[in-house]
Design goal:
Elements (H helix, E strand, L loop, with lengths): L11 H11 L9 H17 L6 H18 L2 E2 L5 E2 L5 H29 L10 H4 L10 H31 L3 H17 L5 E2 L10 H17 L2 E4 L8 E4 H7 L1
Antiparallel strand pairs: 1-2, 3-5, 4-5
Helix pairs in contact: 2-3, 7-8
């Protein structure tokens, strides 16, 4: 008779961990009687299906039965008193945790192997043409050298500026909610001070860039739609004034 895996379980601890997770049972507080019945019941189902159960599964079943009896029957000392002993589940818990660590490590190694199998290396090339003549003298004037260095510095500054702007936008892409909160706080404070209208420019942060202005304008549109504010602009490209919607209705 040939051996087969029991369903998807590679070993008895694999099955036991599955039963623990399925029963939502804490590995640090294993209900031995319950999990033993489930484990043995699973093995019986396999036998009914004429699936050969490996010896190691039977060994763990015996361990669980022994552990169950130790949990149910108190130990009596020679004086006839109940003897308090160390939790008998500690050893099983330790073996399960060690198995889980090893299995996780095996999964990581398997994933690394699959990744490496997908990597194709470039064949070695003949580098003798470079190795035989390693030294090369550039024939350039002092002026050409200075101009090349200035171009290098110019490109470096441009790259740094683009990187800085890109990083700032990346960090602030999720700030529309906080921008609405900041603008609402400014508006309510100015309304309490007696200002009936607030310029849109007053709602912008100090030294705003293009992203700040765009984000604030999008936030204002959301506030007009959802928070009872309104805006007016009397001429093209003129100042935008923000007012409360009820104030706008009175003026109309």
């Amino acid at each position: 008779m040939y051996k087969v895996r029991i369903d998807k379980f590679e070993g008895p601890f694999d099955l036991l961990i599955y039963l623990l997770e399925n029963a939502r049972m804490d590995i640090y507080d294993i209900k031995v009687a319950e999990i033993t019945e489930q484990y043995i019941g699973y093995l019986k189902e396999m036998e009914e299906l004429n699936v050969e159960v490996d010896t190691e599964f039977i060994v763990l079943a015996a361990v669980l039965i022994r552990l169950k009896s130790r949990m149910l029957l108190p130990r009596i000392n020679e004086a006839g008193e109940i003897e308090i002993i160390e939790d008998p589940r500690i050893e099983l818990r330790g073996r399960l945790l060690e198995y889980m660590r090893i299995k996780k490590a095996a999964e990581l190694l398997m994933a690394a192997e699959e990744f490496n199998l997908a990597v194709h290396e470039k064949p070695a090339e003949d580098m003798s043409v470079y190795l035989e003549n390693p030294d090369e003298i550039l024939q350039v004037s002092d002026e050409q050298m200075v101009n090349a260095f200035i171009q290098f510095l110019t490109r470096k500054r441009k790259v740094e500026e683009v990187t800085r702007r890109y990083s700032r936008v990346r960090r602030r892409k999720e700030t529309i909610e906080s921008r609405i909160s900041e603008m609402t706080e400014i508006l309510e404070r100015k309304f309490r001070e007696g200002n009936g209208k607030v310029l849109f420019n007053e709602l912008l942060p100090e030294k705003p860039d293009r992203y700040d202005i765009t984000l604030s304008f999008m936030s204002l549109l959301s506030m007009i739609k959802n928070q009872g504010y309104d805006a007016e602009q009397t001429e093209n490209f003129g100042d935008i004034k923000v007012i409360k919607r009820e104030t706008a209705d009175v003026q109309q």
